[in-house]
Amino acid sequence: MEQPIVEVRHLNSFYGKSSFSKRRRQILKDVSFCIYRGEILGLVGQSGGGKSTLAKALCGMLTDYTGEVILHTEKPQMVFQDPLGSLNPAHTVGWSLEEPLRLQGKSRPERQRAVREILQRVGLDDSLLARYPRQLSGGQCQRVAIATAVIGGRELIIADEPVSALDVTTQAQILRLLAELKQEYHLSYLFITHDLNVVYQICDRVLVMQNGEIVEQNTVEALFSNPQHPYTKQLLDD
Amino acid sequence: MKRFGNSFLCIGTALTLLLVLLTLLSIFWTPYNTTEMNPAEKMQPPSMAHIMGTDNFGRDIFSRVLQGMGMSMTIALCVVAIGSVAGGVLGALCGYFGGLPDLILTRICDSITAFPSVLLALVIVSVVGSGTGQMIGALGVLFIPSFARVTRAEFARCRGQNYIQNAKLMGAGHGRIMLWHILPNTMQVLLPAIAIGFNNAILSEASMSYLGIGVQPPNASLGLMLSDSQIYLKSAPWYAISVGLTIVLLILGFSLIGEGLQQRSRRN
């Protein structure tokens, strides 16, 4: 049946000085879920609700936590909200795209071939390779960021509000691109957003998070037609 | 404003390049021997034969200024090299890893910078003795904190950026991240700091040699010559003026480069 690519079991995470400090705050509360291979799992909830902490957990970047995060794949790659911030400003687009392959020890011709291929796939021109991120538009940056995430061959991508900073037309294009890439490269996404419209367009299942707890998880159809938790209902009404 | 910044950089580079070329030339050729004394020609005002005049021993001031400039630049270069490399490495490690070592080092740097650097250099030189090598060592150590602080701030800023997080996820090691992912981003702050550091080094060298604890005679350095010339300020004002002017031009060149670089990075 469906194989999980990530399993999270009873994850609690804390933020603050140390375990005996009173200022230690619990961010995630007993979070359990799976991401299955080939699915786009949406994660919605208000800001400060622990969404980004959960993303960090999947990247193995939490220090103070209990519970288990089991990755059945390599570490994920992330696509961030700020398109400019996910690309290194000191390097050209070409350099940034090659870096994952360089780390895998691929030869120069191999890298260049792969870069041209992926660039074409995300709908960008070869002429961008020599440019710096600040010379690109937001949409172009985000396409490069997505290409960088995909080119290394990782199967899991965490997209943290990837279209929130883009205008509506570009949003639609990027969402379509993400969906297409998912099919072609057999990817799975954790798609973090506050925009239920976006969830409806792209996700298969949704987790609803409130104050560090998952209050509801269901398929998109079921969630939109028959929300159970009051918080979900409130989100849908807004 | 845009053209202004570039003109700073242009003029500064041209001026510095000219002085550096003259200095390089002086290694192979100077108009006159720089140490040979000539009593017949002492204290001559500037003329076609001696464009900066001669000093109290009849030596050509222009030739000695060229040589002194070479000495000052070499010392400044060494001082900045020690300070920027050691300070850069320390600052990078502290900024990138943070934690307790970072806290301790920052405090040490703060307390060192609280003293005037020439005063501290005096203390060090009085312990290890005076001389060119000792002065380079003392000033080099004292220049570490300023570079460490700048580098630390930049590495700490970049450490949390999204592109660094992704580089980590790609599997890049700490060394690779620091060298290839962060260091290029710090250049726009580091390069002006180096230009300004070079200036401070030239000034510090001049002050220490002026005080007699740096370069020793018969070697020429700008500070040493300035100290010699002040006795003859009335009888041979060209001596002090030509040496002083050289120091000013040298500093001006690097200040303009530093300022130009800063303006350029502010625009980007």
Identify the biggest protein-protein contact and residues per side: A-B, 23 and 16 residues
What is the number of helices of chain B? 9
Q: Radius of gyration of chain B in whole Å, from Cα?
A: 22 Å
Give the structural class of chain A: alpha/beta
Largest sheet of chain B: none
What is the strand and helix layout of this fold?
The complex is a heterodimer of chains A (238) and B (268).
Chain A: E1 4-15, E2 25-36, E3 40-44, H1 51-58, E4 65-71, E5 77-79, H2 93-103, H3 108-121, H4 138-151, E6 156-160, H5 168-185, E7 188-192, H6 196-202, E8 205-210, E9 213-219, H7 220-225, H8 230-237
Parallel strand pairs in A: 3-7, 3-8, 5-6, 6-7
Antiparallel strand pairs in A: 1-2, 1-4, 8-9
Helix pairs in contact in A: 2-3, 2-4, 3-4, 4-5
Chain B: H1 2-28, H2 61-97, H3 99-114, H4 117-128, H5 132-159, H6 162-170, H7 174-210, H8 222-229, H9 237-267
Helix pairs in contact in B: 1-2, 1-9, 2-3, 2-5, 2-7, 2-8, 2-9, 3-5, 4-5, 5-7, 6-7, 7-8, 7-9, 8-9
Question: If you had to describe this structure to a student in words, what would you say it looks like?
Answer:
The complex is a heterodimer of chains A (238) and B (268). In chain A, strand 8 and strand 9 form a beta hairpin. Chain A has 238 residues and is α/β, with parallel strands linked by helices. Chain A has 8 helices and 9 strands. The two termini of chain A are 36 Å apart. Chain B is mainly alpha-helical. Chain B has one domain: Orthogonal Bundle (MetI-like fold). In chain B, helix 1 (2-28) crosses helix 9. The longest helix of chain B is centred in the N-terminal third of the chain and has 37 residues, at 61-97. The model of chain B has no long low-confidence stretch (mean pLDDT 88). Classes of the chains: A alpha/beta (238), B mainly alpha (268).
